[in-house]
């Protein structure tokens, strides 16, 4: 009896040891999707469709280096709109999308690698606006614009704060200056960067109402060993100062 138990235990240890030494399949290819979300992800030509080297930004530079260090193959495409690429990553094995906020309601939907960078959630007004807010509740009486499908828009909906949405977040900068909305619910530094690209400066931050960390979200069928290797590579990059240096180079 003891002999049989020892044999069984030995077999279990062999299986566990093999799992611990699991290597990434060299032929496995991750399909990465992103959107125009400056300064984290951007098409170099400013359009809504781009491939590989025609995409740059803070997150793009970090993710490319992360996959290189992890030894994981990938192809990268920038597409529009966000709702579409988010759904693809949610439903298709081997797909991933970045950057996206890691929220409690999304936690079980993906496997996560990060954080890649911060995203403060703010309400911006025109520079000479008299609006002054102490809480999000005080913003309910104003016209608010947000980015359709974005985590900030979802947050406002969950809080019961009415708002309009635009298919491109920079449209909200133009709406704000045209007086079509009173407040722009957006991320920081993303909002300031987008406004600058539209020739708009001097916007007033009237409220910081939340914040999130931005991640690479991978389909739940993604092999655990790939997720682990990517996370280890990112942790090493952060320890070396690569992540901070990349952030600072765009801001």
From TrEMBL:
InterPro entries per the UniProt record, alphabetical: Solute-binding_3/MltF_N
Alphabetical list of SUPFAM superfamilies matching this protein: Periplasmic binding protein-like II (SSF53850)
Signal sequence extent: 1-22
Keywords: Signal
Span of domain Solute-binding protein family 3/N-terminal: 32-250
Domain of life the protein comes from: Bacteria
PANTHER family in UniProt: PERIPLASMIC SUBSTRATE BINDING PROTEIN FAMILY 3 (PTHR38834), SOLUTE-BINDING PROTEIN FAMILY 3_N-TERMINAL DOMAIN-CONTAINING PROTEIN (PTHR38834:SF3)
Protein name: Amino acid ABC transporter substrate-binding protein
């Amino acid at each position: 009896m003891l002999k049989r138990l020892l044999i069984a235990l030995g077999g279990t240890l062999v299986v566990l040891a093999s799992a611990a030494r699991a290597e990434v399949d060299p032929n496995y290819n991750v399909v990465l999707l992103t959107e125009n979300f400056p300064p984290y992800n951007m098409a170099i030509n400013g359009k809504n469709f781009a491939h590989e080297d025609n995409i740059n930004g803070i997150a793009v530079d970090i993710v490319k280096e992360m996959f290189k260090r992890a030894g994981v193959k990938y192809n990268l495409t920038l597409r529009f709109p966000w709702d579409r690429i988010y759904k693809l990553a949610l439903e298709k094995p081997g797909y991933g999308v970045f950057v996206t906020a890691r929220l409690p309601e999304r936690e079980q939907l993906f496997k996560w690698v990060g954080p890649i960078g911060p995203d403060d959630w703010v309400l911006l007004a025109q520079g000479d606006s008299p609006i002054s807010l102490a809480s999000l509740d005080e913003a309910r009486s104003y016209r608010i614009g947000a980015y359709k499908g974005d985590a900030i828009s979802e947050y406002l909906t969950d809080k019961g704060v009415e708002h309009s949405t635009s298919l491109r977040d920079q449209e909200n900068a133009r709406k704000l200056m045209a007086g079509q909305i009173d407040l722009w619910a957006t991320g920081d530094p993303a909002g300031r960067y987008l406004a600058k690209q539209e020739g708009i400066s001097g916007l007033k931050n009237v409220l910081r109402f939340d914040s999130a960390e931005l991640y690479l979200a991978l389909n739940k069928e993604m092999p655990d060993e790939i997720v682990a290797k990517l996370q280890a590579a990112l942790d090493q990059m952060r320890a070396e100062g690569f992540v901070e240096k990349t952030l600072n180079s765009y801001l």
